[in-house]
Amino acid sequence: MYALAKAKDELANYLSNVLNVDKEKVLNSIEYPTKEQIADLALPLPSVTKKFDIEIKGEYNGRLIKEVWKDGLFINARLNEKELLKEIFTNFSENYGIIKTERPLRIVVEHTSANPIHPLHIGHLRNAILGDTLAKMLKARGHEVNVRFYVNDSGRQVALLIYGLSKLGYPDPPSEEKKDQWLGLIYAMTNVILEIKKINEELKSTTNDSEYKEKIARRDELLISASELSKRNQEYFNKLSDQIMNDKDPEGEISKIIEKYEKGEEDIKKIVRKYVDFALEGFKESLEKLHIMFDNFDYESDLLWNNDVKLVLDFALTSVAKINYKGTAALDLQNYIDDDIRKEIRIPKGLEIPPLVLMRSDGTTLYTVRDIAYTIYKFRQFNADEVINVIAEQQSVPQMQLRAALYILGWKKFAINLIHFSYGMVTLQGMKMSGRLGKYISLDEVYDKVAEVVKAKIEEKKGILENLNEIVNSAIRYAIISVSANKPVSFDVKRVANFEENSGPYLQYTYARAYNILSKSTENLDISKIDENELKNEKRTLLLMIAKFPDIFINSVDHLQPEVLTVFLRGLADVFNSWYDKERVLQEPDESKRITRLFIVKGVETVLRNGLNTLGIASLTRM
């Protein structure tokens, strides 16, 4: 049991007797006051009893807690600083604060899962970093984690890319170009030319004046995009334009590609997989810069070819919840889940859930049915206790449909343990994106822009460049994980590379500062020599924060809230820097004061190191 857990236990023992309330109930209700000067720990009386006229009589004689008093509806407690420091550092280890769970689970984290048609862009950045951070945190907590990427290779977008490549004669990417960026250009060119062709044909039969003007305006916008794309490779653009504009039925060709691939015809299988894998090579190259890797890449097509999707579809078609919806088969989700089930699978009471359409009118399956098959696969393939899908908030309703469908079809355990980790969108200031028009800032460009700013700051400070990549990684990661997932992020390159405050590099700089104080010390840290009078003001605050770290770690991981740990580390860094700018450590002549301060620095250094590593940020000793 770590120090603060022992302190809470001590307080709970005392108060359970005073209040005549079950100890566990008291223990689970103890909280941290929002203002530290009020108290160190507090028990809100309404959480444990209806009797508020309690008197705390006499002096409290505890070890880790030195004072207990009542204030309104709260019973407050203050910790014994000297005993707290001794408790923390008597059995202190390099892994301090990283508390392993008593109930390790097998957890699948699926994230990023971008369509393999163009490079990853800033829109994918938040998904990838959040997913990777969750996986790292869960592993640190002692869970067995499997990280997966779902390759959507069977949809229209991939078929459109293959259609464009077919018009170019299925070329290989030039050796000097990054493969996903090369594919993204061909995809955007193909899409823009197809849209222009479609509007040209529609204009021939448009008689409504306002509708005609709208189409002309839309075509003008597309022509501007076409002009910009053509400058990037005139040869490709001219060839695609000639071929597509003279194609009598491009949509028919795209549909044939989809149909043949879904059936697993060998000729098209080889072609599609070849180019999809080119895209994945590019993804891996981009993500490795941020130390993001996957255990498995799961292809949607495999679920079709091995009949996983067909088995789910056939089973769903026999369900009592099957209905006819707009001329095709669907599952009625609204009338087959009551309020108790909604609570169990996290669907808000009263929210209308649309039917889940099982197939198109031509008999082909929709992505929602494939999601059911894939969810079952993830649980079974890893024998998972939980599956976490990191998906944008716009997919909240489809994710609810997925859980409801799983429950109705009998996979209740999977429905209950399927977690949608939802997040808001991320934008780059002053930039609107459209992958189909080739307008986006790629993840590689974001990385390079941040690297440029970071490098300039390091050179300005006369620092060392050997850890440039780790500093860039910290800047980008921190910008994403310091914000609550349900809030939008506006990505500002200059702000994320700030070395002075509220950034990843700032935390790394603070860690290096603490580390270097300790590395220069030759002191034997004898705990019997500490000066308890030193444990005041900022030093007391730092001691309490060091004590709270195990709690912060546990709560951050168990509630899947990386921002809680991130914000805590930033607060710790702020207090440490504020204190260190005013007081010396190694130069302090009084031995007891010096040793006490070194213990505080040691605690800060360890908490920062373990916290940063948990979040996937390197703790650098030199900057």
Automatic annotation (TrEMBL):
One of its GO terms (biological process) is arginyl-tRNA aminoacylation. Gene3D superfamilies: Arginyl tRNA synthetase N-terminal domain (3.30.1360.70), HUPs (3.40.50.620), Isoleucyl-tRNA Synthetase, Domain 1 (1.10.730.10). InterPro entries: Arg-tRNA-ligase (IPR001278), Arg-tRNA-synth_N_sf (IPR036695), ArgRS_core (IPR035684), DALR_anticod-bd (IPR008909), Rossmann-like_a/b/a_fold (IPR014729), tRNAsynth_Ia_anticodon-bd (IPR009080). Its EC number is 6.1.1.19. Pfam families: DALR_1, tRNA-synt_1d. It catalyses: tRNA(Arg) + L-arginine + ATP = L-arginyl-tRNA(Arg) + AMP + diphosphate. Residues 507-623 form the DALR anticodon binding domain. Keywords: Aminoacyl-tRNA synthetase, ATP-binding, Cytoplasm, Ligase, Nucleotide-binding, Protein biosynthesis. One of its GO terms (cellular component) is cytoplasm. A motif ('HIGH' region) lies at residues 114-124. SUPFAM superfamilies: Anticodon-binding domain of a subclass of class I aminoacyl-tRNA synthetases (SSF47323), Arginyl-tRNA synthetase (ArgRS), N-terminal 'additional' domain (SSF55190), Nucleotidylyl transferase (SSF52374). It comes from the Archaea. It is found in: Cytoplasm. GO terms for molecular function: arginine-tRNA ligase activity; ATP binding. SMART domains: DALR_1 (SM00836). PANTHER family: ARGININE--TRNA LIGASE, CYTOPLASMIC (PTHR11956:SF5), ARGINYL-TRNA SYNTHETASE (PTHR11956). Belongs to the class-I aminoacyl-tRNA synthetase family. This is Arginine--tRNA ligase. It comes from Acidianus hospitalis (strain W1). The lineage of its organism: Archaea, Thermoproteota, Thermoprotei, Sulfolobales, Sulfolobaceae.
